[in-house]
Amino acid sequence: MDLKIQRLDPHLPLPAHARPGDAGMDLRARTDVVLQPGQRALIPTGIAIAVPAGWAGFVNPRSGLAAKHGITVVNAPGTVDSGYRGEIKVTLLNTDLTEAFEISRGDRIAQLVLQRVAVVDVVEVDQLDETERGRQGFGSSGRD
User: Fold this and answer.
1) Whether residue 59 has pLDDT greater than 70
2) Could you give phi then psi for residue 68, rounded to 5 degrees?
3) How are beta strands 78-80 and 25-28 bridged, if at all?
4) Annotated binding residues for substrate, as ranges?
């Protein structure tokens, strides 16, 4: 499958898988940003994509940024619908309580993962079928 990408910034590399078999493609910052403790910012990536019908793009945090610096994607995963053609932007949040985090243009800030998605018809019913779990919610499995 091909992913059509429009480069909005000719000086940034296109998203790519870092290693064979990687699910995510690195997204890079188009601008410099300093995230103060607890601050969030919407960061442009310099690309627009055409996700094929029946698929969606999901913008995920980079595990290294999260573990080392407390940087995460606020609405993780961010969803890129197949009809969207605007610039991909990433809402990053600095969860560190004391240290600012500096992002430089071209830094890898998130990952884009493409997945198939089911398109369903919504059918209203008077009652749902019964299951073993039923209406038991959070923590109801009894397993740690």
Assistant:
1) yes
2) -85, -30
3) unpaired
4) 62-64, 75, 79-81
Q: Beta strand 40-50 with 87-94: parallel, antiparallel or unpaired?
A: antiparallel
Instruction: Tell me phi and psi for residue 13, to 5 degrees.
Output: -70, 155
CA distance 62 to 71: 8
Q: What average pLDDT does the chain have?
A: 94
Residue 54's pLDDT band, with cuts at 50, 70 and 90, is very high
**Where in 4-107 does DSSP place strands (E)?**
4-7, 25-28, 33-35, 40-50, 55-60, 71-73, 78-80, 87-94, 101-103
Residue 136: which pLDDT band, with cuts at 50, 70 and 90?
Answer: confident
What pLDDT is attached to residue 144? 52
Domains and CATH numbers, the chain: 4-116 (2.70.40.10)
Question: Is the model's pLDDT at 112 over the cut of 60?
Answer: yes
Indicate the annotated binding residues.
62-64, 75, 79-81
What element of type H or E holds 67? helix 63-69
Is residue 138 packed enough to be buried (19+ CB in 10 Å), middle (13-18) or exposed (0-12)? exposed
| Inter-residue contact 68 to 37 (CB < 8 Å) | no
